[in-house]
Write a structure and sequence with these properties.
By secondary structure, the chain is mainly α. It is 38% helix and 0% strand. The longest helix has 18 residues.
Length: 81
């Protein structure tokens, strides 16, 4: 994303905002990474099998940005290849 950007945002805009990028070890137990892990799994499960009940996704889905019709995918819920 930093080099090529996305469909909506060019790489140069990412470079303006992201000055450095670092991977942390999971053992460091950083709270932001823990929250990302806790939300990523329910999102992935919902994307891969939307017909299967997913209580964890139900908890976080109202916090995902959506359009005026309530559509989340492509708005606040984006999937990158």
């Amino acid at each position: 994303m930093l080099s090529r950007g996305t469909y909506y945002i060019g790489g140069e805009r990412f470079h303006e905002k992201i000055k450095s990028f670092k991977f942390n070890n999971k053992r460091e137990n950083i709270i932001g990474l823990q929250i990302a892990d806790l939300s990523a799994y329910p999102l992935a499960r919902h994307y891969l099998s939307p017909e299967v009940p997913n209580k964890s996704f139900e908890v976080i889905k109202e916090k995902i940005y959506c359009n005026k019709d309530g559509k989340r995918e492509g708005w606040g819920f984006k999937v990158f290849p």
